[in-house]
Amino acid sequence: MAIMVQLALSADGAFLGVGLGYVAVRCVQKYIYLSSALSRIRKSPEVHASEVRSLIELRERMENESNSGSADDMFIVRGTVEAVEKGNRKDSRSINLLISPDSGERGVILEQSQTCIYAEWRRSFGWRWASRLWSLLPNTSTEKVSLSIRSVPFALVEHGNPSLSDSVVVNLDGSTHQLPLKTVYQDFRPTASSPYAFLCALSGLKFPIGLLYEEKILPVGKDVTAVGICHLKDGIPEIKSCKDLPFFLCELRQNEMVSGISMEMNILKWSGIVLGTVAVGIVGYSISRHWNRWKEWRQVRRSSSSSSSSSEEEAVVAADDSVAGDDESSSSNIGDGELCVVCLTRRRAAAFTPCGHLVCCQRCASAVERENSPLCPVCRQSVRSWVRIYVS
């Protein structure tokens, strides 16, 4: 946890801003998904199982008369769970229902799972003062070890009307939605303590504390709501799940679904707005800090380069002074034709190229060369460089 916090706050919080931005984008995507689902659920009729057949036939007749494309055959069907067999309807007691091995209860869906439960005491010895309060409580996590789901054909029927013609067969093929199952058996089996678990607890790593065996069923006679696409198959209404909806089989009614989705959408909307604003602020702050640092680095580099060039010039001038020191001290002994035409105090010792005029001392020649447009003082021709002339 501490490493993640340090990583998030590194680069002036840039990683934290990007992470918050990603969460905000995910909130917006989930909001758009729920908005589409809410619109479809509001437009879908909520009917009983016995009314689905007539509504499907009515829609098919209207489509054939208008020659229009297929309409959205989505229904919200409320009914009671009953087991069925292909072709004919039988009493649920004569059908091979799924029976829980441990509880003995009967249902149409049986889910058996084994879950490994882990515990971890992160920083339980107060390695970081910020997590001392959190470390007073253990953090548990779970991991599915095995999962088995079995089902038998079942349908939603009108309460008190078990006729197959008035029922809606539920097709679970391809459905990944959560099912309204009832927990009928639980058995927690703790693992034996070991030195490895003790070392994991001391170091803050997670360690297994036991296996949880669970059995869940969808019992016969339970009132549920199915939300999906309905069509006639062999003259019998059938409903399938829709991947664009967050529900398939549930215990909620239409108004409860609408209110729940609306509340979740409001939470996602404001979460996206707040997190997005904070992310933009953090990223903008990080960019401005890095921009100011880059400008300061560039200014320091320029000042260091200018100071180094000035020190080099000073070194050249000092060398020129040391070379021409004797000439300066005895400038009265230099003839007029040998004096520098610029300063008139030192001996001529530098010839310009390409003109070749020997008219300046080394110091003045360096000053002329550093000009923006260096020109020879005599012929006014452009100067590329100068050469030291030694007179023996």
Helix/strand layout:
Blueprint lengths: L1 H42 L2 E3 L3 H15 L7 E10 L14 E2 L6 E15 L18 E13 L2 E4 L10 E4 L10 E9 L4 H9 L3 E13 L3 E11 L2 E5 L8 E2 L3 H70 L1 H5 L20 E4 L4 E3 L1 H8 L15 E4 L4
Helix pairs in contact: 1-4
EC number: 2.3.2.27
Pfam family, one: GIDE
Catalytic activity: S-ubiquitinyl-[E2 ubiquitin-conjugating enzyme]-L-cysteine + [acceptor protein]-L-lysine = [E2 ubiquitin-conjugating enzyme]-L-cysteine + N(6)-ubiquitinyl-[acceptor protein]-L-lysine
Q: How many beta-strand runs?
A: 15
Overall structural class, as computed from helix and strand content, comes to alpha+beta
C-alpha geometry: elongated
Structural domains: how many: 3
Roughly how many Å is the radius of gyration? 44 Å
Beta-strand portion reads: 25-35%
The average pLDDT is: 80
- Terminal CA distance: 80 Å
Largest sheet: 5 strands, mixed, barrel
**Low-pLDDT stretches:** 87-93, 122-138, 326-330
Order of helices and strands: HEHEEEEEEEHEEEEHHEEHE
The neighbouring-strand order within the major sheet is 2-6-7-11-10
H/I helix tally = 6
Helix content: 25-40%
Catalytic activity: S-ubiquitinyl-[E2 ubiquitin-conjugating enzyme]-L-cysteine + [acceptor protein]-L-lysine = [E2 ubiquitin-conjugating enzyme]-L-cysteine + N(6)-ubiquitinyl-[acceptor protein]-L-lysine
Membrane topology: Multi-pass membrane protein
Domain RING-type: 340-380
Region (Disordered): 308-332
